Amino acid sequence: MSEQDDRLSFPSLLLDSIEEAVIATDLDGKILYWNRFAEKMYGWDAAEVLGRNILDVTPAEQSAAEAAGILNRLMAGQSWTGEIMLRNRDGVSFPAHITDSPLFDASGRIFGIVGVSHDISRRRAAERQSELVLAEQVHRLKNMLAMVQSLAHQAARHSSSTDEFLSTFSSRLSAVAAANELLIQRAGNPIALDELARATLDFLADIERVSFNGSKVMLDRRMILPFSMLLHELYTNAMKYGALSNSNGQVDVAWRTEEEEGRTLLDFEWRERGGPAVARPSKKGFGSALIERAIAQELQARISLDYDPAGVCCRLRTAL
Hints:
This protein is of the alpha+beta class.
């Protein structure tokens, strides 16, 4: 190859080194140049597309009319940049960013068109993921604020003094914070019921006197906060008045699932034994009101509290 041939091939070598598709056509849209990255992005070898019309090769079906309009603008001497749906050799559509410009000769006459494009599928996917994450965070925050408002309202109704309200509210708020931290750690993904139970109760005293028995059950994000609140409430009550208020009591936590009419139902039970004799309270307190109203509503569950003299039993039934 002569020195002159080397110089003539240099522009082609330069364009082949660019990590973007570079395509040139004449004014009829016939493909004159197709660089190495265009081969990679579209799946067509240069030899297969040279001489073919650009509108027959690159636009996705849904953007064919838009591509024809862009070509007309370019032929009239106007540049264009923007995003459009393209397709590869296999017919798979993908979003791309394109910058197209008319080519002018020394006299100012248009003799062709050149375009530079790249696939923005990953960027679009990242944007969609960011939108989903933001929407999830907003939804989670709204749920948490609703729960906090409910806690404050219920605590105020059942408190006889400011100190009692602050104590009651602060304790439950700590449980909300712990559950929310778990949600953040798991990025809103489902969590196993036994793992949630241990994460909720592990930092509390006498956890060794609580047994867990049940199959693998995954709770989705909407259930994590209210279920954590339920466990915290039952444990707090057991420590103050129930089986964990003495040195002998035990708590058995068990659950199982069953299929019914195409739905998976969860049966959950918290049963205390070995503690002081239990009597039904003369009036409904904050804890029982929280469980039977707010938590039951959040879990869309049937919850019953049984004040058996041998020990409190809480049963829950809901659809997963």
